[in-house]
Amino acid sequence: MSEDWAAVAKAINQRVDELGLRQKELAERSHVSLAIVREIQHNLVERRRSPRTLESLSTALGWHPLHLDAVLRGRTPPEVGDPVVDLADTLWSRMDRVEERLEDITERLDALKSDVASVMGQLAEVAKHVRGRR
Predict the structure, then answer these.
(1) Which UniProt keywords apply (predicted)?
(2) pLDDT tens, 47-93?
């Protein structure tokens, strides 16, 4: 499942404009550092964030706690009065974690494959050199 951090930045910027907030005020209201608010608001760094960060920003902007998470994942945001479902217990969240883990495993296997190929090449050179001495 892809994440759309640009959509999150756009949603935050629109809401900040509607509410007439400054970054510093949003940071204070949400208890999220100004640097992280800036990164998210301007989509400077796309990286995995704590679900609590998006929840805090959503709440500070007067939205449902899962509003920005829904925007991030391309879903329709819940209404303010809707019940809050713990993200850690949702099927989507679990699937995301499995997908991330598989990507990590794939990257590690690719690196190992490259390392093994390099070692095999070096061993072939050593064996050729040893045969040449005989």
Answers:
(1) Coiled coil
(2) 778 888 999 999 999 999 999 999 999 999 988 878 776 555 556 66
114 and 98 in a common domain = yes
Token representation of residue 133 = 């001495």
> Rounded to an integer, what distance in angstroms lies between the CA atom of residue 76 and that of residue 113?
42
> What would the two tokens of residue 131 be?
């045969």
Q: Write out the residue range of the structural domain in which residue 28 sits.
A: 5-82
Query: Tokens 């998006």 label which residue?
Result: 54
Quick one: angle between helices 51-60 and 23-30, nearest 10? 110
To the question of pTM greater than 0.85 for the whole model, the response is: no
Please work out, in degrees rounded to the nearest 5, the angle formed at the alpha carbon of residue 67 by the alpha carbons of 94 and 54: 70
Concatenated DSSP letters of 64-127:
-TTHHHHHHTT-PPPPTTSPPPPGGGSHHHHHHHHHHHHHHHHHHHHHHHHHHHHHHHHHHHHH
- pLDDT value of residue 86: 59
Residues 58, 94, 96: CA angle, nearest 5 degrees: 75
Residues 60, 76 within the same domain? yes
